[in-house]
Amino acid sequence: MAQSASSLETDILVQLSYTAAKNFVANYYTDLQAARTKLKGYYTATATVSWNGNNLSGGAADVEKLHTEMPAATYEVQCFDAQPLMPNGRGQCSILLVTNGYVKFGNEKDAPSRGFSETITLEPDTSTPPKFLISSQSTRFVF
Predict the structure, then answer these.
(1) DSSP alpha helices (H): ranges in the chain?
(2) DSSP-derived secondary structure letter, 42
(3) Does domain 5-142 have CATH number 3.10.450.50?
(4) Residue 71 and which of 2, 10, 16, 136 are 20 to 30 A apart at CA?
(5) Cβ atoms of 98 and 121 closer than 8 Å
(6) pLDDT at 36
(7) Backbone conformation region of residue 54, classed left if phi is above 0, alpha if psi is from -120 to 50, else beta
């Protein structure tokens, strides 16, 4: 049975979203642990961020301040899901990314792990395709 063109396009968008999200997750969480000075390059200039229910309204400056003032942390992403959002008419689409895992703050081996969940909207970076940037992010710790 042949697939319709729209079904095939949807399958391709889902696969491309998964691949882009997989690369993003690998790079972002590595830099979040070890190279926080690179993190501002992951966000759009007008990104909105909610950190455990606290909205950051200062754009990229607030995001950078959050990451530089945060204690050392080890992230273990257990799983992620990525779904394409509406194409923008130029052959690009945004991606809805949900990650779940554990985070341990501090350098102590016995520091407690906490669960976390993040919902991120990734927008295509028109200046550097096929790169994606965070346009919105909501991080919650699971207690």
Answers:
(1) 5-34, 60-69
(2) G
(3) yes
(4) 136
(5) no
(6) 86
(7) beta
| Cis ω before 130 (30° cut-off from 0) | yes
> Within 10 Å of residue 94's Cβ, how many Cβ atoms?
19
Query: DSSP 3-state assignment of 65?
Result: helix
pTM of the model: 0.85
Report d(CA 98, CA 17) in Å as an integer. Answer: 12
Structure tokens at 99: 């990650």
For 91, list phi and psi in degrees, rounded to 5.
80, 10
Tens-binned pLDDT, residue by residue, of the chain (143 aa): 455 557 777 788 888 889 999 999 999 999 998 888 888 889 988 888 998 888 887 667 777 788 888 888 899 999 999 999 876 655 678 999 999 999 998 877 788 899 999 999 999 887 876 789 999 999 999 87
Question: How far is 79 from 104, CA to CA, in rounded Å?
Answer: 17
Token couple for 32: 């979040």
